[in-house]
Structure formats: C-alpha cells, structure tokens
Design brief:
This protein is of the alpha+beta class. Helices cover 40% and strands 19% of the residues. The chain has helices at 49-57, 63-69, 126-134, 142-176, 184-206; strands at residues 15-19, 25-27, 40-45, 78-81, 84-91, 104-110, 114-119.
Length: 207
C-alpha cells in the first residue's frame, strides 16, 4: 500500500518525521512516500479534536486499531492485524506535578512503512529516541525504532526502581529503629505499592 505525506494534512500531529535510513529524520512533505527504508513516524495527542477525527476516519487501519489509538483500549496488550500491530505500553509519569506511580499510557501502531504513536499525557520516554534521531544516531527502520522505545522505557523504569529501592532501604532502617511515626505508615504503604507497580511494568516490558 502506497502511503504519501499528503495523508496527514489536517491531522495536527505533535510531530511528523520520516526516518532517513541513516539514523536521522526529515520533515514529511506532501509528496514524500513511506517505505521500509524510510518509514514515517507520526505522533498524536488523541485528545486533540483534529487528530482524533483523523484517526477515526483514516483508511490505514480497522476499527479495533482506531479504538486503541484513541485511548479506548487501555490494557497492556499487542493486537496483530496482517503485517501490522498495535502495541499498548505504560511507563513512568515524569510530568511536572504528577505522581510517578500514575503510569502514562501510550499506543503504537507499527509496520515496516509507518509508525503512528498516540497519547494524551506527555511520554518522556520518547525524548531520548528523538534526541538520537536529532544527532543522526537513531533508528533506521520501524523495527529499530520500536526496540529503542522499549530500551528507553526499561531504562526509565529501572532508574526509578533503583531510587525506590534506596528509599525503601532507608525506611526499613527507620522502622527497625522505630523512627517512623504512626502517620508515616500510609505513606510507606503507598511507596511500596508504587514499587510493586513499577517492577511489574518492567517485567512486562522485558518479556
């Protein structure tokens, strides 16, 4: 199926890149063609009205994929359709003012010609991927792009889990010396829950 840059007109992506096959990217113009050697990457905020409508009316994918990209499927899963797949992921919430255990979800529709990712809250895990592309050391294909995203998420989860581990060790020491007051038990429980969520998320991403 031929996919040209003209298909994204009016869709208001957060960004629209074409991988150049050499570790970098170029802007997508209306005459650009998505190929396995130079796939498109379109990133959307599905709460944007124009983006939502574009996804819902696109001829690129079926209704299940449309539901997934617009946030109507939130469970961690992979949906395969032909030579494409929809991947639902979650990662640490590093947005200012939010709590990290309130995980950020985002969705990826991918095949060898095109990557379409969508979210509402910003996904900080994508920043290293974009930074690598800016420095021409990034993904060359859609498959490499997905591997880089998975690596970035795992690094993010691992770093946060290490921080939690260090904090838990300190809290354990205070419990043993009875330094934690009664009101601190609720906060401790919340912290332990956060650690469990992050560890489970990391296990999913590594599978």
């Amino acid at each position: 199926m031929a996919i040209y840059g003209s298909i994204i007109q009016g869709s208001e992506p957060v960004h629209a890149y074409q991988l150049d096959g050499e570790g970098g990217f170029v802007a997508i113009n209306v005459n650009a063609e998505a190929t396995p050697q130079k796939p498109f990457w379109l990133h959307y905020d599905y709460r944007n009205k124009a983006s939502y409508q574009w996804i819902k009316h696109s001829g690129l994918f079926n209704s299940t994929i449309k539901d997934g990209l617009t946030g109507n499927i939130s469970r961690l899963r992979i949906i395969r359709t032909g030579d494409s797949a929809l991947v639902n992921l979650q990662t640490i919430n590093k947005n200012i003012g939010d709590r990290p255990e309130q995980l950020v979800a985002f969705r990826i529709y991918i095949n060898n010609q095109i990557i379409i990712s969508s979210r509402h809250h910003k996904v900080k895990s994508l920043e290293p991927v974009i930074d690598d592309l800016n420095h021409h050391v990034g993904a060359k294909t859609s498959g490499e792009w997905l591997v880089e995203v998975a690596d970035s998420i795992n690094d993010e989860v691992s770093d946060f889990t290490d921080i939690l581990h260090d904090r838990l060790i300190k809290i354990e020491g205070k419990i043993l010396t009875e330094e934690i007051p009664e009101r601190g038990k609720l906060a401790l429980g919340r912290l332990l829950l956060c650690a469990a969520i992050c560890l489970l998320n990391g296990m999913f991403l590594l599978v």
